[in-house]
Design brief:
103 residues; 52% helix
C-alpha cells in the first residue's frame, strides 16, 4: 500500500522521472515496495529487477543452460559412476594406475 508519505517523497523525484522517461526505457526497481510504488505511479511501467534486465540481454545459449538445467546437472554429477565389467564399480583413472603399479 502506498502511503501519503511515500507519495510525497515520490513527488520529489520518482514521479517526474517516470513521467518524462522514454516509454521504451526500462524502469529498474529491485525491491518489492519500490516495484509497487512504480506500478502505482505509472500503470504503463513494468518495473524490472536488475537480474531480469540482465537475463533479457544475455545471448540465447540453447537448452541445458538455464538455472533449472544447471541444478539438474549438478545433481547428476554427484551420482555414482556406471558399473564396469560384470557389474563391478568402475575405478577412477588414478585408482586404476595405482592398482596396475601394485601388480
Amino acid at each position: 500500500m502506498v502511503t501519503a508519505t511515500s507519495l510525497a517523497v515520490a513527488e520529489l523525484s520518482l514521479r517526474p522521472r517516470l513521467a518524462s522517461r522514454d516509454q521504451e526505457r526500462p524502469v529498474l526497481a529491485d525491491g518489492f515496495s519500490c516495484r509497487l510504488q512504480v506500478e502505482h505511479l505509472d500503470r504503463r511501467a513494468r518495473p524490472l529487477h536488475l537480474a531480469e534486465l540482465l537475463e533479457a540481454h544475455l545471448p540465447d545459449r540453447g537448452p541445458g543452460t538455464g538455472p533449472d538445467d544447471r541444478a539438474d546437472q549438478a545433481g547428476q554429477e554427484g551420482q555414482a559412476e556406471p558399473a564396469g565389467e560384470a557389474g563391478t564399480p568402475s575405478k577412477s583413472p588414478a585408482a586404476e594406475r595405482t592398482s596396475r603399479n601394485r601388480s
